[in-house]
Amino acid sequence: MKTNEIRELFIRYFEDNGHQAVESSPLVPGNDPTLLFTNAGMVQFKDVFLGNDDRAYSRAVSSQRCLRAGGKHNDLENVGYTTRHHTFFEMLGNFSFGDYFKEEAIHLAWNFITEELKLDKDRLWVTIFEDDDEAASIWLDQIGIQSDRLVRMGKESNFWSMGDTGPCGPCSEIFYDHGSDIHGGPPGSKDEDGDRFVEIWNLVFMQFDRQDDGTMNPLPKPSVDTGMGLERIAAVMQNVHSNYDIDLFQNLLSAIKNISNQGDDSHYRVIADHIRSTAFLIADGVTPGNEGRGYVLRRIIRRALRHGYELEIQTPFFFSLIFPF
Predict the structure, then answer these.
(1) What is d(CA 202, CA 223) in angstroms, rounded to the nearest whole number?
(2) What value does the mean pLDDT of the chain take?
(3) CA–CA separation, 122 and 54 (whole Å)
(4) Secondary structure letter of residue 31 according to DSSP
(5) Which of 64, 94, 248, 294 is most buried, by CB atoms within 10 Å?
């Protein structure tokens, strides 16, 4: 299944389940000065979760372009050294604004990946926040997940927020097991950072509004915010173990390899990822600079350039593409 087909199937599935399709917002948040970049699908809905914005719908679905290269969520230094991290990526998400909560969110997610995408249930693992007995009961008693593939995790991994303040809550993550031939252990194990078990979907149960002093005020209505990395689920559906092996990256990687000497694959991953980030940031009005968003973009460009030097790329085409300013 091609990446575009997965995106279209996701949107259509949730539309069929009563969700309003909403266009991606820009990478520069229009409603939140606390964020450098749009780092999740829920950013454009922050005021809805807080009760400060009324919409004509209580369920939404989107494919949001995201950037995680600064602030609380920063994957910049991971790019190139894993097969699943990006600075720029698309996040598929479904949202409930005081409509459904944990039970329906879990059922909608499970039905999509097992009935629509037809993933093997025996390859799926689930994590929950350590004291979320309600979510545990839904997964064990209603979904039928085996208890040895349900892992309770702490606040660092299973309590989500888009920043230091704002909407937040416990979450439940779905992992896919790529197989024993890939290094890594299940979530919660000492080898969890390997590439074998990859988180594909995070279901966040929005319940609180975190204040500057750390106070957790209950939200007006318990809500749902989910996020599934399009590139990660595409790797699963295309039967590859690296996001960089999916159809979305092939032309870009081929062009880079055509103008370079042979080198470690990490260099190619960095350059391909950073070209995408640079292009989308500039398209959304960010230019390289010495502070703020411009400085992050400048770092991304310089990092791509450094890896280009490692591949002994010297053509003017490469430098004009990576470093246009």
Answers:
(1) 14
(2) 91
(3) 41
(4) S
(5) 94
Nearest alpha carbon to residue 151 among 175, 116, 170: 175
Report the DSSP pairing between strands 20-21 and 59-67: parallel
Residues with Cβ within 8 Å of 314's Cβ and at least 6 positions away in sequence, in order, are: none
Range with the largest mean pLDDT of 74-78, 111-115, 165-169: 111-115
Task: For tokens 């032309």, name the residue.
Answer: 251
Rounded CA separation 15/21 (Å): 7
Half-sphere exposure of 36 (CA within 13 A, CB side): 17
Calculate helix-pair angle for 3-16, 230-237, nearest 10 degrees.
110
What is the Cα–Cα distance from 279 to 252, expressed in whole angstroms? 13
89 token code pair: 């990526």
Beta bridge partners of residue 90, listed in sequence order: 65
Calpha distance 178→180 (Å, rounded): 7
The predicted pLDDT at position 189 comes to 95
Torsion of CA 269, 39, 173, 250, to 10 degrees: -30
Condensed to tens digits (0 to 9), the pLDDT of residues 269-282 reads: 999 999 999 999 99
What are 57's two structure tokens?
């719908």
Q: How confident is the model over 27-86, as pLDDT tens digits?
A: 999 877 888 999 999 999 989 988 899 999 999 999 999 999 866 666 787 888 888 889
Alpha carbons 200 and 173: distance in angstroms, whole number: 8
